[in-house]
Each structure stands twice: as C-alpha cells, then as structure tokens.
Amino acid sequence: MRIGIHQHVFTKKLSADNLDLLNVLRDYGFDSMDINVRALDLPTAKLIRTRAQELGLRLMGGGSLPVDKELLSSEQEKRREAIDYMKELVRRVAELGSTFYGGIIYAPFSKRTGKAPTQEEFERSAEGLREVARYAQGFGINMGLEPANRYETYMINTIGDGLRLADSIGEKNVGILFDTFHCSIEEKSMYGALTAAGSRLYHVHVSANDRGIPGTGQIRWDEVFQGIKDTGFDGTIAIEGFVDASADVAAGACIWRKFASSPEEMATQGYAFIRSMLEKYGIPRDEGLKAGVTERRGR
C-alpha cells in the first residue's frame, strides 16, 4: 500500500516554479501524488514526470469534467467536445507516466438539474466513457469513477451507482475511486461500500467528513481500513482534503473556510494517521517506484 496526497492540499497548479513541492512531499514520507491534469500542459507534465522519477514518487491523474463539457447533452456536438476533452486529459496523464485517471468524469462537475438522472443521460455517459476508456487502454491507463455527494452531482452518488455505470461501460480498465468524504454523506456503511467495490477499487481518497484532516471528524475509520484490507486493495490511499478556498474546485465543492491551519498540518497529521491505521490493520506498505510494484490493473 502507498500513501499519497493531492496537489490541492498545497497548490492549484504545478509548474517549474514550485516543482520542489515534490521533494517536500517525499521528505514527509509520501509515496505518491495526485495531479490535477486539467491545470497541466504537456511540457510541464514532462518536468513533473522527470522529477517524480528521480524521487521515486508515483503520480496519479485526476480531472473532473468542467461544467461546460456536456457529456450528457442531447446534442452530439457537445458530447463530442466533452469526449475529446477527456481524451486530451488522458494524454496528459500518459505524459506524467501515470497509469490512472479518475474523478467526477461521468458528468459535468457541480452541475445539477434538480431531478434524478434520466436513462438517456446514463446511456450517454456510458457511451462517451466507453470511447475514452478504450483510448486510455492504448496508454495502459485505468479510469476511476468517483461517486460524489448529491450536492456536487446528480448522476453517480453511491458505489452501487458507480458499479452500475462501470458495468454499462463494459471496459476492463474502468473501476471505482472511493472517497471517504462523499461516501460519508451517501453510503449506509463505509465497509459495505468498499467491499462492494471489491477488485474494481482502483484508488482511494481520504479526508474527514468536513473535508479536513484524515483521522479527525465523524468518519468510522476502522470500517474504512478494515474494508480496504478485506478487498485486497494494494494501490494508493491519497489525502484529498482542503486547507482553504484556494483549490481550483473550491467553488464547486463549496469550500469557503479553513479545514486545517496549514497545508503542512494537513499533510503531516494525515500521513501519520494513515500510516498508523495501516499498521493497526496489518496492511503492508511499499514506498512508491523504489519498491518496484506496479499499479493494480483492470480485471
């Protein structure tokens, strides 16, 4: 198991000017970093990849659909724009040397209709993602559908919803990105949700129920780590908390107050908590690329 952290804890955008952040994270003990590929160009991706390889730090790609990329639209041209946009994000993930791309990729982030999704919308999402998934296979990239809370999407709210969409897509490289914050709102049981995902669990995000430091708040963390152990998951558990409103998704995620005194507090306390829970449940660690372990592939 690897311990990771999302760039949003520290910065909206990675560039040549703040690339030393990767060194800082490795010094803290992190094995992996989630990268927002929406805010990334190909030359910068190459710089990040080179530095990460030097440090033995794995990279994971993320990038939810912006509100103007209308994958669910009844208009074919708008759906094509969203599909092509995601293919470009997959190219950026490949340039990072990553084997994972995930997030709220099945519908525009933070866009709601005030109604439940229609069957037509579900089918449009599956059709578009099927094309993107096949494209991603050419780069050896897995895709993670991230079920999100009802205030950020009306499409996929539970792990069951995500599995149903993955089944409809029907591609072996499509699985689930589990997020403790979202699931604390929508699931009856963290353990039940994790074990339902089973071998299709590809990535895990952790934060408190208020998106603060993992280990704080009301989440039943013993259920989470017992569930992770019982699925046999051996990928990355990444901190995706928010310190304040500086993240580029802050408006859509309704972030307007501080959840930690500093990024350093979020990172160091979160890391210590995850490590302690891995030890408590006897889940073995490896340490990024230096361990020579490949990412879990689609089954």
How would you summarize the topology of this molecule?
Layout: E1 2-6, H1 21-28, E2 32-36, H2 42-55, E3 58-62, H3 76-96, E4 100-103, H4 119-137, E5 142-145, H5 159-169, E6 174-179, H6 180-186, H7 190-197, E7 201-206, H8 221-231, E8 236-239, H9 263-280
Parallel strand pairs: 1-2, 1-8, 2-3, 3-4, 4-5, 5-6, 6-7, 7-8
- N-to-C span: 19 Å
- The side-by-side strand order for the widest beta sheet comes to 1-2-3-4-5-6-7-8
Mean pLDDT: 92
Globally, the shape reads: globular
Count of spatially separate domains: 1
Give the radius of gyration.
18 Å
What is the count of helical runs? 9
Strand percentage lies at 5-15%
Structural class given helices, strands, pairing?
A: alpha/beta
Helical amount = 25-40%
Following the backbone from N to C, one meets helices and strands in this order, namely: EHEHEHEHEHEHHEHEH
Sheet with most strands: 8 strands, parallel, barrel
Instruction: Assign the CATH architecture.
Output: Alpha-Beta Barrel
Name of the level-1 CATH class? Alpha Beta
Report on the structure:
- This protein has 299 residues and is an alpha/beta fold.
- The protein has a single domain, classed as TIM Barrel (Alpha-Beta Barrel).
- The chain contains nine helices and eight strands.
- It has helices at 21-28, 42-55, 76-96, 119-137, 159-169, 180-186, 190-197, 221-231, 263-280, and strands at 2-6, 32-36, 58-62, 100-103, 142-145, 174-179, 201-206, 236-239.
- An eight-stranded parallel beta barrel has the order 1-2-3-4-5-6-7-8, surrounded by seven helices.
- Strand 5, helix 5 (159-169) and strand 6 form a beta-alpha-beta unit.
- Helix 4 crosses helix 5 (159-169).
- Residues 291-299 have low confidence and may be disordered.
